[in-house]
Structures are given as C-alpha cells and as structure tokens.
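Late entry, written up from scratch paper. The run itself happened at the end of the previous shift, but nothing got recorded in the book at the time, so transcribing now.
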Amino acid sequence: MKGAGSKNAWALFLLLLAGVVLGGFIGELAKGVPALSWLGYGQSFGIDDPIVLNLGVMVITFGLSIKITMASIIGVILSIIIYRFL
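Output as recorded:
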C-alpha cells in the first residue's frame, strides 16, 4: 500500500511540465476563438535582450522568457489534481 511519502517527485515535475506545455498550447489555439480568447490572456516576463558572451572561438547566448497564460494555470491545477489521484 502506498504511503503519503512514497510519491515520486519526478512524476509531479513531469506532470507539471506537461500541464504548462499543454496549457500554453491550448491558450495559443484559443486566441482566435472569441469565446475562448480569455484562455490566451497572460503575462510574459524574463530577459528581453539576451546576454551574449563572446569568447573569440565560441559565442554563448543566455536568455530566458516565460509566458504564463490562464490556460497554463488551468493545466498546472489539473496536473496537480491528477497527481493526487495517482
């Protein structure tokens, strides 16, 4: 019988990642539908201008941008609910 401490943290991480990705995808698809356009509403934050490190032989570019939409929040909530039932 599974105890409360026997759940795998990697399973939660993968479910959360899947919820964010699928939610973001659904949010992008719903932008064109007038009744579902609220799913694509969100905020984007991160580094707008990437940091470039030129080492002469190699150029490394650092950047991070995260877009959180209503659909991705719903996806995260659903993934947490699914994880609790596993």
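Strands lie at 42-46, 51-54, 59-62, 65-69.
(Scratch paper discarded after transcription.)
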